[in-house]
Design a protein that fits this description.
alpha+beta, 3 domains
Length: about 240
Amino acid sequence: MKIITHVDGIEVLERQQAYGTHPRWRDRQVPFSNVTELLLTNGETRYMCDVCGHVRNTIQSVVAHMGSHTEREPEYPVETLKAIIRTVKKFKNTGVRNYCELAAAELNRKGVATLNGEKWISEQVSRLYGVYKDKYRVAVPPQRSSSPVSPAPAVEEQQPPAPAPAPASCAGKPSTPTAEDVVRRITELNDRLSDITAELEQLAADVSFVMGERVAVDAEVIDKAKKYDELQRKFFS
């Protein structure tokens, strides 16, 4: 069992077998194999994986982590996985961006079978390559490129420099937008601008209407005040 003395800088005061409720026996506390309960000097409790010293706040978190120490059967036969890794590496070494897509196409041409009988796709190849590339080491010779030479004995044909390959990425990165993409984006922005302009015009009309009502009301009040003043002068002067 791995022994640790501190958790996040806090000293471990006591350690003991971890107990907790189990889905099958919720009415009692049961011991959890390979899980240790740690009591820290600040009064808090943590739980540790005895295999690697992994520490978490709950027993359930440590139990879920324990699955990483269990050897699982591979999803495909080892030879199939090695064929995937070998094919992906072959295209990856050329510097192309879509090496998983090219690898999937080659696996389909060679008749390498999938579990469900469907054709290989780049996402599936990418996932299996990421999971098993470090488990099954497959050596692939580097791809060499040779410059063609003209028939003249002493004159080598000059080839224009090849463009630098884009950074390799299995998932792929957004490409440069096309003219259609730009036009579509401009159209969308223009439509939004038209909607905003219409809303502004409506707001201006509403403001004008409100201000007009206010002016009319003020004029009516002033007129009534004048008439009241005239009546006072007529009857009390």
